[in-house]
Amino acid sequence: MRSIARRLPSCLSFLLCLSPLLAHAGEESRLLAAINAYRAHPSGCAGSTPRRLPPLRAQASLALPVGFGGGLREAVRAAGYQAQVVRSVRLVGAADADEAFGMLRERYCSALLDPQFADAGVSRARGEWRLVLARSMGGGTLEDPRAAGRALLAEVNAARSRARLCGGQRFAAARPLSWSPALGAAAQAHSRAMARGNYFAHRDPDGDTPADRARAAGYRGRQIGENIAAGQGSTSQAMASWLASPGHCANLMNPMFTQVGAAYASEARSDQGVYWTMLFGAP
């Protein structure tokens, strides 16, 4: 195994290295093997520092038909897979696994090297391919709720510790936020409501706003801001999505806010699986 691993990076194509071992395997299996070889020896993914990742496990329930209709989460759930996070990539025009892998590596390398995915399914119909990447609800990446709150507090304060550009708006470094139990309770309640009610919105079905929920939880601050996210499998993924969004990033960096509470809730039967809420306040 060591000798194979040393030779892989020097090959022009991972599939050229693997094809003698997979001569009798289907094209779908060859594509997944190439993806796993790339995850073991990542390179060339712009804007990131790749690290070695474990192989994706083949799951027949994720091998959806290339042209399936309807929602992705509903489709994998109907096939018997309860997804915590799931993503689908469709390719058109790849004649074989070599070409499909080349297209994936060029266009979707960040998805191939995303550590939150643990399982995969590949389907093919002539020149069309579908790759489904997922992690099951039992995948175990989510922190327990209390640890998630501590992690989000640490991450938001790390983000505020240095100047940052949120879209076109520049923010200076801001003072760290302190944890508010009342805001944390309101965030937990909203995440739970979104997960159980299968919706994603700042205003809940009863018409309550973030400020309404904060007051109901006992928070008496004058200013309230809220970030929500859905589908991310870890606190770091949720934080990364907020920092990449100008409006959410602006909330994170806003020097007016002095307190924060945050939480997530998960529900396998919902569309997004995991729902995150971060509430900011100023007393």
TrEMBL record:
**Domain SCP residues, every copy:** 154-280
Q: Which N-terminal stretch is annotated as signal sequence? A: 1-25
Which of UniProt's keywords are assigned here? Answer: Signal
Q: What is this protein called?
A: Cysteine-rich secretory protein family protein
